[in-house]
């Protein structure tokens, strides 16, 4: 059969767990067989202020009060996303801002110092509330924990903010 998630339209930002269960009628002298499985669906766009875990930074509201973001991120801080399935994903697009921090965003698997999947450049805007996008190409179809780590090239005291992470399909 088919199933259409009830939240399949609009700007859905949560997670949906679907559990399928089957039980047959059994047979003469044989008990019924039971099987079940669960699938987790996530949106392609993830609010950066809602990771599964983080080191450093905090949830901050925009100056106009219209949205939240992961803010006050320093060199070495990271966002953690548990058990992400990258099959069919070709790139991670990150929406960020930085007044003065110049550096890289590293995408790593399994742990903060795990295998490096790729990097994206961070450039300063000279002011806050000007948002940029930077992209990390993804060439693996694995599943596991992901860490997005901030690496400053200039002063270690400069900060940056991250608004969204967009997991984009492989074309």
What is the fold's blueprint, element by element?
Elements: E1 16-23, E2 34-41, E3 45-47, E4 53-55, E5 58-61, E6 68-73, E7 78-85, E8 89-97, E9 103-109, E10 116-122, E11 132-137, E12 143-152, E13 160-169
Q: Could you characterize what this model shows?
A:
This protein is an all-beta fold. It has one domain (45-169): Jelly Rolls. Helices cover 0% and strands 52% of the residues. It has no helices and 13 strands. Strands 3, 5, 6, 8, 11 and 13 form a six-stranded antiparallel beta sheet that branches. Strands 4-7-12-9-10 form a five-stranded antiparallel beta sheet, with no helix packed on it. A two-stranded antiparallel sheet has the order 1-2. Strand 5 and strand 6 (68-73) form a beta hairpin.
Relevant terms:
171 residues; mainly beta; Jelly Rolls; 6-stranded antiparallel β-sheet; 5-stranded antiparallel β-sheet
Which outline best applies? elongated
CATH architecture: Sandwich
Low-pLDDT residue spans: none
Number of domains: 1
The first-to-last residue Cα distance is 28 Å
Number of E strands: 13
**What count of helical segments does DSSP give?**
0
Q: What is the radius of gyration computed over CA atoms, rounded to a whole number of angstroms?
A: 20 Å
Oligomer: single chain
Helix and strand pattern: EEEEEEEEEEEEE
Fraction in beta strands: over 45%
What percent of residues adopt helix (DSSP H or I)? under 10%
Mean pLDDT: 88
